[in-house]
Amino acid sequence: MRRLLQTQATEMALLAVIALICVFLSLASDRFFTLVNAFDLLNISAVNIIFAVGLLVVLIAGGIDISFAVAASVVQYVTALILAQIGGGGWISGLLIAGSVGVLLGAFNAFLIHTFRIISIVVTIATFNIYFGLLMFFTRGVSIYDLPTWWTDRVILFEREMADGSWAEIRLPVLVMVLCVFATWFLIRHTSTGRQLYAFGDNPEGARRFGINIGAMQYIAFGWVGLMAGIGGLVQAHYAQEVVPNALYGRELEVLAAVVLGGARLGGGRGSVLGCVLGVLLISIIGNGLNLMGVSPYAFRMIIGAIILAAITLSNSSIEKLLPFMRTEGRKS
Prior knowledge:
Helix content: over 70%
Strand content: under 5%
Order of helices and strands: HHHHHHHEEHHHHHHHH
Largest sheet: 2 strands, antiparallel
Mean pLDDT: 90
Strand order of the largest sheet: 1-2
Low-confidence stretches: 318-333
Radius of gyration: 20 Å
Shape: globular
């Protein structure tokens, strides 16, 4: 039992915090604890979860990427332009195009990091500005509204009419999110590549001496977050039914806070898909609750900043140190 608590301490702590916050919000707003609101939260959180599982792989490998949200905006625009040239396409062609462009943008980050031995945060700060500057320069901030019907038509996977006439719906973004979560979980937990990513993030020099290809690890990690950025960008445009150049600007800090809060260590070598998903849901629940309570959206930005500080503190501290009962059980056993 103690070993289970130690290995899943972060996830269990997040579940407890989420439960407490949900109880408080259900008392503060009668609209929070409803099936409609729960499904809306899931639909809204889908894109952030897709981004988060991509970023998780980079953090496990000891890197950091803050350019993925802007890269997703670039992917949206490029995909829309290519689809217009080929006559509209469909979901398969859209995913192939978006995923390929995303992987290329991620691989460009990995190329700079590996070739010039620059730390990842510096590279991604640079590419963040490059991608966004080029996007705004060439698009002049003009949105694209004339998208193919397959891209904008809502796909409802499950729906239920409530007593007040409202509809609780689970839409396509949730299905895509589940597939991305499963693929990431399988990559990091059930493949030799995943084990190498953990080893590289935990001890880069030891991994190098053990024969792990460092360049391959960086390309895989940043290529994966690029792939998730591409898919997430496509799904976000589907949800919004338009392509807006700056729609995802600023999303990177929210996602980073959620992933680190979910147990991923900024130094690398640690992190889980479950913790990552719970971190995103926690932040989404807080934002949703504040909105239902009529609190200013600026308060949410302050809370995100506080969460980043808390997440970094937890990342640099052993979770067992924060749970005295676990240390007590350790001495007894």
